[in-house]
Amino acid sequence: xxxxxxxxxxxxxxxxxxxxxxxxxxxxxxxxxxFAAGQLVLVPVAVLWxxxxxxxxxxxxxxxxxxxxxxxxxxxxxxxxxxxxxxGVLVGSWAAVFALTITLGTSVFGRxxxxxxxxxxxxxxxxxxxxxxxxxxxx
Length: 139
Hints:
The chain is mainly α. Helix content is 86%, strand content 0%. Helix 2 runs parallel beside helix 4.
């Protein structure tokens, strides 16, 4: 009987830790919203601008965004189960859309403002959907 009570207690503590991790994982939704918002600026810069000034502005802005988000993520105390897989899928989805955007933007659509606007939204979409699902899952 004592072993059963110990096992039940351990399962209860594990469930409590999982619940606390879910409650405190709202930081990841904020991370994803910030990353998505960054796409609304960075993608048009990458698609519309040309030349060395464009490369410098894009590189500096992207470095600031990634550095800021990385510092923010590293300071978080709680990471829920399955975080690595979800993050990998989201960043992989974003990278595929971003690569397609840059390829089409530079080879097919040129400096089209309409394409840049749609591309920015397309690049932000996987991150925004991830943020939305993360917010729903934390509740």
